[in-house]
Amino acid sequence: MASSPTKNTVMYYPWHHFVLFPAAFILAAYGVRRYVDVAGNDSEDSRLWFTVAALAVVGLGVLLMLRQHYALTLQDRIIRLELRQQYFEATGQSLRPLESQLTLPQILSLRFAGDAELPALVQAAIREKLSAKDIQARIQDFHFDHMRV
């Protein structure tokens, strides 16, 4: 019998978690340590280690922000798929022909609509070019998304 993943399952991307991130962290720590040793000197070593430390710290920050960006991008794709499924279940028709006429913010807002009002909201969003805020204001049967990162 196959076991299902638990809610607390942690997934690792080896290159990010065990190579790139540790290397950036070590380089940042080493660069800061070396700069602290020569700080205050107006020398090439001081400027070099300041530059190395600053670039390494910025690189570390970028790695952390990329991780969040990847999660949000994946969630946007999943929301698009969920909306396609919800629309199909509500209408028996594919959302794909209409999708190109919807913006991502519109799609992200439509996910809050209940099955009964979704088809009409999709049509209104396309016809009236509703903003995400306008779509949410028209939703009567609001389904909150508490799982967004």
Structure write-up:
- The chain has 6 helices and no strands.
- It is mainly α and 149 residues long.
- Helix 1 runs antiparallel to helix 2.
Number of helices: 6
- Looking at the structure, what is the overall shape? elongated
Number of strands: 0
The average pLDDT is: 88
Q: Low-confidence parts, pLDDT < 50 over ≥5 residues?
A: 1-5
Proportion of residues in β-strands:
under 5%
The helix/strand series, from N terminus to C terminus, equals: HHHHHH
Oligomer: single chain
Largest sheet descriptor: none
| CA gyration radius, whole angstroms | 24 Å
Keywords: Membrane, Transmembrane, Transmembrane helix
InterPro entries: DUF6526
Transmembrane segments: 12-32, 48-66
SSE inventory with pairings:
Blueprint: H1 14-38, H2 44-91, H3 96-99, H4 104-110, H5 118-128, H6 132-138
Helix pairs in contact: 1-2, 2-4, 4-6
Give a quick summary of the entry.
The protein is mostly helical and 149 residues long. It contains six helices and no strands.
Keyphrases for this structure?
149 residues, transmembrane helix, elongated, single chain, transmembrane, DUF6526, membrane
